[in-house]
Amino acid sequence: MARSQILAIDAGGTMTDTFIIDENGEFVVGKAQSTPEDESIGLINSAKDALSYWGLELGDELPNLLAGVYSGTAMLNRLVSRRGRRVGLVVNKGMEDNHRMGRAIQSYLGYSYSDRIHINTHHYDPPLVPRDLTVGVTERVDMFGNVIIPLYEHEVEKAIQSLLDKGVEAIVISLLHSYKYPVHERMIRDKALEMIRAANKDIPVFASADYYPVRKESHRTNTTVVEAYAADPSRKTLEQIDRNLAKHGARFNLRIMASHGGTIGIRSNELARTLVSGPIGGVIGAKYLGEKLGISNIACSDIGGTSFDIALITQGDLSINPSPDMARLVLSVPLVSMDTTGAGTGSYVRVDPNYGNLTLGPDSAGSRVGVCYPEGGVDTVTVTDCHVVLGLINPDNFLGGEIKLYPERAYEAIKKQIADPLGLSVEDAAYGVTELLESQLRNYLESMILGKGYSPSQYVCFSYGGGGPLHTAGYTKGLGFEDVIVPAWAAGFSAFGCGAADFEYRYDKTLDINVPDRADARTILAAGKELQASWDELMEKVADEFSKSNYSRDDVNFRLYFRMQYQGQLNDLEIEAPIKRFRGVGDWEKLVRAFEDTYTRVYAKSALSPELGYSITSAIVRGVVEVAKPKIPEEPLDGETPPSEAYLGKRRVYWDGRWIEADIWEMEKLKPGNRIKAFSILESPATTFVIPFGFETYLDQHRLFHLKEVR
C-alpha cells in the first residue's frame, strides 16, 4: 500500500475534519468532534478515524507524512470572545482616543440590513486596548513621508515605562503614515526592547511598520493590535498541536491556512493572516477541483455547524479583499473575498418574543450540536434537533454511530420552545425551521451573485461542509445554476482544500505612484524604479519567512502583483504582473495593458479612462513552494442502477405536511454512473445528502454527485 504524505486539518467549531493524502494522491477523510479546550485531541481522534478506513494505525503513518496543514477557529474565537493579551498601545500624541473610537462602520458590522438602517441599534464593542493603556508621543509625518515634527525621544522612555508599570503583556506601536516613513516607529521599538531587557521581562513589541506597512490608519492599528492580542498568543496553541503530533511520530513542520489562500509556517511573522482559515480551505479546494475539471465559474457554498460561507470564483480567479472586517473590526490583511451569515446546522432556533416569528442564530451550539446531544449542556433548540425529529438524520449513525442522538429530547424541546408558542405540531414546526433556513440561504446566495453583476446560470454551485448536502436542494432550488455539485467527501472538503493549497507567503506594501497618460520615458522609469524597489524589499521578506522552514531563495517561485486604479477613482484592482522585473518603458505598457484587461472584465470596456492617468497603490509579492496535492478520484462508470448492497432500507421522514417512506442508501457503496431518485437519503459517517421530491442525483467517475431538478 502507498504511504501517507499529507495531513490536512480543518478544526471547526463543531467538528474537526482530517484529510490524509498518500503518495499516489489517493485520500481518505476522517471526522471527530472538536475539542476547543485542546484542539490536538479532536485532531488526533479525527486522524485515527481517517486512517481506520485504510486499516492503518496513526503511530505507523505519522512518521511517513511530509507535511501537515492546519486550519481552525481558535484564534478567531480568542478575538471574538475578547480573551487576549493585555496590550499597551503607543500612538501620536493627540490621537490616543482613535483606537477606542474606531471607524463608524464598526458600530454596525455584522448587523442585518434592518438593524443597519436604525442607528439606535448601533454600538461599539469595547476596544482591544483600553484608553488607560494607550499613550501618546510627539512626532508627525505627513502623507508623503516627510517629517514635519521629529520624534521627541525624551517622551518615549516615559511612555514605555508607564505601560510597563501597568503590567502590559505586549506593546504595539502605530504612528500616522509610518508605512511611508518607518524610522520613528522603529526608534520607539528599539527603545522599548532595551527597557524590557533591562527590566528582565519577556514582553513582545510590535511596530506596525514591521508587520503591516499599509495605508488606512485604523485598519493598520487594529491589525497590529490583533497580532499582539490574539494571533501571537495563538502560536502556543499551534505549537502544542505540533508537539502532540510529534509525540505520535510526526516529523514535519506544521503549516497553517492563511487568509490569502496559501499556507504559512507557525513561526511566521504575521499570524493574524490566519484568523480566518477554515472557510478559506473550502474555496481553495473548489478552485483546485474546478481547474482539474475545466470549470472556471464556481459559486462556493459551505454549511457547517455555525455558519453559511459563500464565495465566487470567476474565470478561475479569486477576488482578494485587502481591507476585510473580522470580529467587528476593520483590518489590513488580504482575505479571499467571502460572505458569511450565522446560519448553520447548529444554529439556535427561537421564537421572537416581540413579533412571534422564528429567528435562526447567529449563535450556535458548537460541538454540542443540539438538545439531542447525549452529554446535554444545550437547552435551546437547534436546526439539528429539527433534522432528527423529521427523520432526516439517523440518530444512530451520527459520526458513524460513535455518538447516539436522542430524538425524544429534541421532540420535547421543539414542542415547548417552538411548536406550542406558534400553535403548530412539532413536525410542522421542525419542517418550518428547515424551510426558513433554506429560504434565507437561497436569498443570501442569489443576492450575492446578482449583487456582483452576474447570474446563477453562469456558475456551477459547489455545495460542501457537514451540513451542506442536507440542504443543497433547498437553497439551490429555482436559481438555475449551470450545475450543482456535491463531492462525496463534502464533509471534509475544507480540509481537502488545505491539502490542495501551496506553501505560500504574501506581503503587501502601500505605494503612491502616479503616472499621467502618455507620460515621458523619464517619469515612467522613475515610477518603475520605485515599484521594483518595493518588490525587491518584499521578496526579501518572503525569502526570510521561507528560510524558517529550511527553504532557500532558489526553491521559491516569486510572483509579482500590483494594485492599480485610474487617478482620482476610489477603487483599485489587484493584478498579477505580466513581467518578472521592471526594465523599461515597454514593461510599463505591459502593466497598463494587464490593468485595463482586468478593468474591462470587472466593469466595462466603455468605462476605460486612460486620460485620467494611472495610480499604483500597492506592491505585492507572493512566494510559492509547490507541494504534493490530492488526486481527484477517477473510477470506471457502472450502470445507473445502484448496487443492492448500497441499499439500507426505508425510514419514515416528515416532509411537507406528511410522513413518507424514504429510501436510505450508504453513500460509500454507490458506484460511479448510479442515478438516485427522490425521495432518498444518502448516508455517510460524516454527512447526510437529501434528495427530495423534484430532484435526482447522478454520481460521476470523480465521485461527485450532480444534483438536478426534474419535472
Verbal overview:
Helix 3 packs across helix 9, helix 12 packs across helix 13 (426-451) and helix 13 packs across helix 14. This protein has 711 residues and is of the alpha+beta class. The chain is globular and about 80 Å long. A hairpin with a 4-residue loop joins strand 13 and strand 14 (308-314). Strands 13, 14, 15, 20, 23, 24, 31, 34 and 35 form a 9-stranded mixed β-sheet that branches. The model has no long low-confidence stretch (mean pLDDT 88). Helix content is 32%, strand content 26%.
Helix and strand topology:
Blueprint: E1 4-11, E2 15-22, E3 27-33, H1 39-52, H2 58-61, E4 67-72, H3 74-80, E5 87-92, H4 98-101, H5 113-116, E6 134-137, E7 140-141, E8 147-149, H6 153-165, E9 170-173, H7 183-198, E10 205-207, H8 208-211, H9 217-247, E11 254-257, E12 263-265, H10 278-293, E13 298-303, E14 308-314, E15 317-318, E16 320-321, E17 325-326, E18 329-330, E19 335-336, E20 339-341, E21 347-351, E22 358-364, H11 383-390, H12 407-422, H13 426-451, E23 460-464, H14 468-476, E24 483-487, H15 493-500, E25 503-515, H16 521-547, E26 557-566, E27 573-576, H17 585-602, E28 614-625, E29 647-655, E30 658-666, E31 675-677, E32 680-683, E33 688-691, E34 695-699, E35 704-709
Parallel strand pairs: 1-4, 4-11, 5-6, 5-9, 9-10, 13-23, 23-24, 30-32
Antiparallel strand pairs: 1-2, 2-3, 7-8, 11-12, 13-14, 14-15, 14-20, 16-19, 17-18, 21-22, 24-35, 25-28, 26-27, 26-28, 29-30, 31-34, 32-33, 34-35
